[in-house]
Amino acid sequence: MRRRQFLISTLLAAWTARAAAQPLKPWGGVVTPPLELADLDGKTHRLADYRGQVVLVNFWATWCKPCRDEMPSIERLRASLQGRPFAVLAVNVGESAEKARDFAASMPLGFPLLLDRDTRASRAWGARVLPATFLIGPDGVARFSYLGELDWAQSEVRAQVEKLIRR
Asked: Which of 33, 74, 110, 122 could crosslink 127 through cysteines, CB 3.0-4.6 Å?
């Protein structure tokens, strides 16, 4: 019985490690939706303007604890790739500029916070669960997605981002 439990726990640990090594799921959508939203300062950001860069598009809200908890790891990833063709666009879903601005004041972030007040963009991207994050290749095509909180600064995730950058 002990041997069987050991075998089961060993297989479970191996499966968990494998799953952790490949946390990003290949994009299942057919076409990458457009994205055109204003940031907190009113500047419009278009996904198309980021061609040639890998872009992390993160849909989040201030009321979403996992969203708030993962923001520092997104910032660490962004900072670690500074000077490389990588950008982050964090899309606040359904909230006011004031709420997003208050959040930004509480946490130093080096990427723009975009406003999806009417939730059209999040619906177009299929972001029904928050946080929802998509990695866009330099060609403008969505390559990976992740629903839920993730440590974006972990080495396995960074390796996948760097692989996209080298494409």
From this structure: 122
